[in-house]
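Quick note —
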Amino acid sequence: MISIIGAGKVGSASAFNILRFRISDVVLIDIAEGLAKGEALDMMQAAPAIEFDGRVKGTKDFSEMEGSEVVVMAAGAGRRPGMTRFDLMSVNAKIVKSAVKEVATYAPECKLMVVTNPVDVMTYLAYKESGFERNRVFGMGNILDTMRFRSYIASELNISREDIRALVIGEHGDSMVPLVDYATVSGIPITDLLEKEQIEKIVNLTRTSGADVIKLKGATTYAPAVVIAIVVDAVLRGRNRVVSVSTFLQGEYGLSNISIGVPVILGKKGVERILELRLSPNARKQFVKSASIIKDMISRLENL
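Predicted structure written out below.
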């Protein structure tokens, strides 16, 4: 069973994707009980069309998450136009801190995936507050960034997105690091197919993509929701997917006491293994800068 805390646009869309992909039953939890129940009822009425006999339940009772293998933390204030992830930190920290206590009480054996922004800082907070092993707490951000990176590469080359393989590390924010050296089209490096100016345009679009959507429609919904379903599937079915998630580092990449996006093997235990890449000098410089930004946010969080 999967539990999702937060029945807003992303949480509810994630729940429906999990049902639609026939991954698991879902408990949708929100302090606005009517919202969670209404979303669950709406999904159940759609279930015959997606030919899935699983269940989705909406509730405000955190005890309903008992027995969950994965809990998704999607509660929190959304990022509004002109708002940075820094602006979200203090309000969302209180929400995450409170909800994590409930998770630790009712689903102490679960894997906890954090979606609430700023996701790297909230992942750090969730890890510290839960008392869980670090492999069981991870944040979603860079998988979404990687999808955006792949989409822009495909668009620039006018080819299928399915043939693009890429990776983004670092903060899920403006300082993210799209790894150009690791981006390929069916094994062909994009540096062999695109000019430097084209690659720089793609990297910049990737970094601003979330803010671009927010500016146009107020919030991102479909892309993060489908990423959540992909991650839940990887963990629940032990698929050992190689993806970039925010995870707590203890010396990897020369960093400690920080949650930041790095490539991992994601499976039944959560983060099965952290993969340390050989970064180019430029990528390393960008990654260190990204880490310093997160470190500063963590420091500010701890001083709140």
